[in-house]
Amino acid sequence: MARSDVQLMLDVKAGDDASFELLFRKYRTPLVSFLYRMVRDQAAAEDLAQEVFLRIYRARKKYAPSAKFTTWLFRIAMNLALNALRDGRFRQMEVSLDQPGEDERPAMDLPDHRPGVEQELVARDRAALIRRAIQALPEKQRAAVLLHKYYELDYDDIARILECSQSALKSLLFRAYETLRVQLAPLVTPPRT
Amino acid sequence: MNCERMEGRLIAYLDGRASRTERREVEAHLAACVACRTRAEEFRRLWGVLDEVPVEQPSPSFDARLRARLAAEPARASVWSWLMPSPRLAFAVSLLLILSVWISSLPPATPPAPPTPVNSEAEFRMINDLPVLEDYDVLANFEALSELPPSKPASGGRVM
Fold this sequence. Notes:
A: 193 residues; 9 helices; B: 160 residues; elongated
């Protein structure tokens, strides 16, 4: 039977580094992805993710399972991301919804009619548009959407991570999704017949 | 329920985390309000659209770099623990030092006279001699005693 995150962390506390490896493997991708979407810089996201794991490892002896492991993990990640963005240590991305981002390749000069290529390009353009819309949200709204939509955390956990009440979180999410609905209207609104 | 109250209810309704009461309230409002119903449908579609973004993966060197940093942790921690005592310990030691200096700077207090040790034998002898001591003035001036021959020291020098 698989051990829970809390049990793994308690084993790490008892000196079992192999349990830390399991936690690290489980959460490295969600963490890097979350941080990338917060700071929009791959190198910065990886640096911050490493810092999150190091902080957890350093705090292992004092670990007390008072909250879910994911709440602790994302709370550290969130604080590091906000500090990094506010300190300007990492480049704060000015996002324009009209301009292509750095992760978008320029459109090919010559049309490629191979099957699948066009679909791939369309999918990439849509993903880039969605990323830019998320990135354009205020930091707290962005974090709320990421934690709610992509990591499916409970309201209580997200509220703890963002240090707000549950009712404030629900309003925050509503406003964030409303902004995204407007910004991504071409993708969301069904074509009129 | 009005449209304003939907702000705090709609998301929980759509993601299935609303209570039964909240769900009924939201459904009643959606049945009556076209604008909120349209919004709710578009929120559902939006969530599908948001899933189109692929998950960003860590670079291939990520694991190796983290393992190297973790491996360096205990050594670094032990060096720092010698050079930098914990703030609590430093505070406690400082406090102890200040207290020691303060106590040593105080003028020495006069120690109270130690109680005279009285052992049980001396106490018993004194109680025995009490009648004699009480009549000491009479005995000291008792002329008849001066006519007695001097007592022998073998009796222990006691006057009875």
